Amino acid sequence: MTEIKEYRTVSQIEGPLMQVEGVKGAKYNELVEVQMHDGQRRQGQVLEVNGDYATVQLFEGSAGVNLRDTRVRFTGRPQHLAVSEDMVGRIFNGMGKVIDDGPEIIAEKELNIEGEAINPVAREYPDEFIQTGISTIDHLNTLVRGQKLPIFSGSGLPHKELAAQIARQAAVLNSDDNFAVVFAAMGVTFEEADYFMENLRESGALDRSVLFINLADDPSIERLATPKIALTTAEYLAFEKDMHVLVIMTDITNYCEALREVSAARREVPGRRGYPGYLYTNLATLYERAGRIVGKEGSVTQLPILTMPEDDITHPIPDLTGYITEGQIILSRELYNNGFRPPIDVLPSLSRLKDDGIGEGKTRKDHEPTMNQVFAAYAEGKQAKELSAVLGEAALSETDKKYLEFATQFEERYVDQGFTTNRSIFDTLELAWELLNILPRTELKRIKDPMIDEFLPGKE
Questions:
Q1: 437 near 458, Cβ under 8 Å?
Q2: Helix or strand holding residue 408 (H, E)
Q3: Which GO molecular function entries does the Swiss-Prot or TrEMBL record give (predicted)?
Q4: Burial of 134 (0-12, 13-18, 19+ CB in 10 A)
Q5: For 26-47, what is the mean pLDDT?
């Protein structure tokens, strides 16, 4: 058994960081218990060891800590989470403590929240369709089991409503497999937290969800643990309980701000925009915990949500996230201002794994060709709309006018489905064919004639 050592040699406190002198055998990421002069206990984690000095990051902040009378105990192990299948249907704070007035969780196991990297050889390729009930995702930017597909939003855009909608509606198609949602909210207001809890409770989706809520007024340092705790829970449910788990994390930007705060307190040399140089590596340790493992029934799929500061997609957080993940769903301020909900901009959005999760036996044989045709037609229609704005509609050819009508109908009927409509992929495909019916048949160049004959409504 690991020896627990106790010290009374706190020499310095700055922000959430505490420096302890004369420490022997401390390890990186080791869990630390801090007992204050009034008997209050707090937890921390070793961030750095330099000789006999240890830098400890305090989860609950350092307010009220007395240098002389504070006792620090090094537990000899990293932070662990007590997990159980009974966590499904429950609500926890950002550190994994029950906050829904229910009984405490009786642990089946205790797991290290840092997790273990999945051996690349043991990874199974993601190729099974997940239905979110949202046309712009299911049809044009398909999510597959084991994928990490972030949502890029902006300040004031309705990513909160979109996250709740996906948590309510997501399902594995044509499957009796266990499906669960792990929802991690970081740095959200009380109103947002209440919205998520009530929304899932009223729809009944809470019964298959695990919620971790880190509020804006909680110490920001706790934010660094919340996604790791959520992913540890997801890995346990997926790889030990054979469940298909969708992890929704909002807002990754708040997580990165907490990381920058700790980095500044450690006086590290800042990188782009003041974020630490290891931001890429740190985000990768979260995102790469998605996937499927050979020989395991379960899977972990991630939908991280981040708000782009000033809607800047070149900002370090969306920029680095885009490098690590397999695509992105982008919310458009223009669509939002024009009243379209959810305001998903399909043209810059991308799911790099979509081609492997669609087609006969997974969705329907007309999925890929209609996806390509709808995407191309909408792009053409947007160009026609810009031309019309400059030269007037009279300058458009008859075909251009059809594309313009298609783009308008696409936004009004296909994109604008609201936050309560749950469309199956088959409903979406039927709607896509109705919209393609606007165009002359000669323009449907990405779909083979036999398929047009079979699916296109009202045409010979």
A1: yes
A2: helix 398-409
A3: ATP binding; proton-transporting ATP synthase activity, rotational mechanism
A4: buried
A5: 91
How far is 414 from 26, CA to CA, in rounded Å? Answer: 57
On the question of pLDDT at 457 being above 90, the answer is no
Give yes or no: residues 351 and 443 share one domain. Answer: no
- The predicted model scores a pTM of 0.94
Which residue, chain included where needed, has tokens 């937890």? 43
Q: Are 252 and 3 in contact (CB under 8 A)?
A: no
User: Domain range for residue 409?
Assistant: 366-455
Q: Note whether 87 and 70 are same-domain residues.
A: no
Give the residue among 380, 358, 379 at the shortest CA–CA distance from 429. 358
Q: Is residue 160 located within the same domain as residue 12?
A: no
- Tell me the C-alpha distance between 377 and 369, whole Å: 12
Burial of 281 per CB tally in 10 Å (0-12, 13-18, 19+): exposed
pLDDT digits (tens, 9 = 90+) for 158-192: 999 999 999 999 998 877 678 999 999 999 999 99
Are 398 and 296 in a shared domain? no
Cβ(43)–Cβ(33) below 8 Å: yes
β-pair partners for 291: 300
Q: What 8-state DSSP symbol labels residue 118?
A: P
User: Hey, which residues does 154 pair with through a beta bridge?
Assistant: 308
Tokens of 138: 């299911």
